[in-house]
Structures
1.
Amino acid sequence: MSLDSLEKLFIEELRDIYHAEKQLTRALPRMAKAAESAELQEAFTLHTKETEGQIKRLERVFKEVGQAVRAKRCKGMEGLVEEGKEKMEEEGEPQVLDAALIASAQKIEHYEIAAYGCLRTYAELLGYTEAAQLLQQTLEEEEATDKKLNTLAEGGINEQAASVGAMEEQEEE
Ligand code: FE
Ligand code: FE
């Protein structure tokens, strides 16, 4: 597909994020399992449910704009998921691994926030009012998830991770 119109770019990006979301329905439960903190587990489990809803919402968007539901391989999300997986496979202190899980998840959310922000704006410009509203709803969910992860990090997980390092340094002395 040549990108000779905003319409085409919009459809391409829609297929990309659709594939990204599909990947996340598999990655998020793994992240929930890997998390030590019960609150973090809960956040990942809740966002898995939300992600399933976001996929349904994207299917409505495809319909709204008269396109068949189709995914295009999202290499960006593949990379982010792969990096997260590598971290989960590493040995380490659970508190530090939780901080790493939050960092991975926030990178993922920021990717999605950028994607949905662009898609929403393109939909508005193309006159797809209904689609723009649906995309805005998902954008807000992604932003709320990012905020929640911040709250969890700042609410103790990062500090606990920091204290693990400090304890080890003392032991080495
Ligand atoms: Fe999402
Ligand atoms: Fe998300």
Note: The two ends are 62 Å apart (CA to CA).
2.
Amino acid sequence: MSTIMVLNGPNLNLLGTREPTQYGSETINDLKERCIAAANKFDHTIDFRQSNHEGVLIDAIHEAGERFKQGEILGIAFNPGAYTHTSIALYDAIKSVDVPVIEVHISNVHARETFRHHSYISPVAKGTIIGMGLKGYELAIQYIVETC
Ligand code: DQA
């Protein structure tokens, strides 16, 4: 049994009430349940986290890197929220570790404001899942389990 880390960035704690036309009406707890169920299908577990703070996300990536080396973690499904579009520090953090990262966005960022079209994360992610709602996390988990 291994673990998949699901890491969520700023404002995703407000899922369910935040801009439901973009992000739907399910809460972060609903998302957590979906992720647990997706991993349980493969007899794996989820380490589910959310933080509004860039440094906490960086620490989580470093921790996942260490746990990846120990064979405890298979990969990270990572929705960096708005840090996607701003954070060289998250780019560097992912580049500094070997753990595979799948970048997930609930909304189709390319159909939104132009400032959402650029991602600092995509060049260092193994892949990206964009615009598929909360289902994107389940797909990322399945991908990590089957291929990482
Ligand atoms: C998001 C898209 C980002 O542009 C935005 O800042 C978010 C959520 C998404 O999941 O669609 O916070 O990452």
Note: Residues 3-147 form a domain with the Rossmann fold fold (CATH 3.40.50.9100).
3.
Amino acid sequence: MARRKYIVGNWKMNGLLAALGEAAAIFAAAKDHAGVDVALCPPFTLIRPMIAAVPGAAVGGQDCHAAASGAFTGSVAAPMLADIGATLTIVGHSERREGFGESDADVQAKAEAALGAGLDVILCVGEPREVRESGEAVDYVLAQIAGSLPADFDAARLAIAYEPIWAIGTGLVPTVGDVAAMHGAIRAKLAEQAGEGAARTMRILYGGSVNGDNAAELLGAGDVDGALVGGASLTAVKFVPIIAAGAAL
Ligand code: PGA
């Protein structure tokens, strides 16, 4: 069976209660594109209000702690996300790996905690600019997968997001050929590590400066099953064309 396209918005540290109208407009428009799965990951503070405003919408976290509870000031546990109705969470975003020193082992533990709490997971990987320039991007990303993929998981509930760090928020994007090559290498790695069936089922999203103008081309690249979108997911005007591009494929 063909993999359904998956378009996910990562609002990062953006959005007050006043932004709920944008979420409502996004999910309303998504209903016109029933062949595509759409999710939003707002800041923790907006998860519950967003679910209340748009019942049934797929709303998730941008991170979770690996422990279920405990003395971890400022952190949020996966069962807490599930408790308020979140259905997914991102783990291993480069802004967490780089800014908060998260290792592959940390990301793996978070992914396992999230799956254990019943959340779907989007596990992010991606190389910094100097690694891309040195020609070692594929090896770098496959090593991240080797270190951060959970040992045992339901392939339908875990997606990978390939997000080259130099493309995030910069307006720069890799060539479609480079995206297809990386996604193909990731899928081969998933087959080796998790089995052929899992690799066929798992969705691999591209992220990094996706917008309404480049979405059709990027989503049409080989082995690309969706997009993880930052800046262009904050408003319906910018995000809905990306959903539409996914639906048109
Ligand atoms: P961007 O962010 O779309 O603003 O480049 C993508 C991401 O970090 O997930």
Note: Residues 10, 163, 168-169, 207-210, 228-232 surround 2-phosphoglycolic acid (CB under 6 Å).
